[in-house]
Amino acid sequence: MPRNTIQELQSITNQFFQLHLKNVDPPIWSEPWNFIGGIPKGDCQGCYATFNQNEELTYIGVGISFTKGRYEKHGLGRRLKRFYKVDVRDYKDASNTTFKRRDPVNAYYIRTLPFEKDYAYLAAAFEVYTILNLEGLNNVVHNKR
Fold first, then answer.
1. Confidence (pLDDT) at 144
2. Angle at CA 123, nearest 5°, toward 120 and 129?
3. What is the CA radius of gyration of the chain?
4. pTM of the entire structure?
5. CA-to-CA distance for 126 and 122, rounded, in angstroms?
6. Which H or E element spans position 115?
C-alpha cells in the first residue's frame, strides 16, 4: 500500500494552513504534471512535490524566487526548470512541450502548490513542516554542523 499519498500531503497542507493562516483557505495541489506541456502554476511561488510510479511522495521542494523584473512571476517554473529542460527536438508549441529530465530523485510526475503572493514566504516553512511530518522522503532539513 502506498504511503505519503496525495491525500496525506493535502492533509498536511490543511494542517499547516490551520496553524498559520486560519482565515485563508488552503491551496489545492495541482493535477499531476508528467513533463509534457507547461508547468502547472509555474508563474507562482510555492512548493512542488515529486511522486514515484507507486504514487508515493518522494520529495518536497520550494520555488519562491523573490527577484524583480524578468523572473518576478517564475518561482515554481524557474526552480523546476533547473531539473527539467525543454527538449527542443520535440518542441511544437507551449501546450505540447516535452522536458528532458536531470532529476536527482527520479520523479514519475510532479504536483505544484501555489501560494498567494502575500503568503509566499511561508512556502519555505511549509517545506520544512512537511519534511518533519512525513517519513521516508528524500529530503534533508539543513546540514547539522
1. 47
2. 150
3. 15
4. 0.81
5. 6
6. strand 109-115
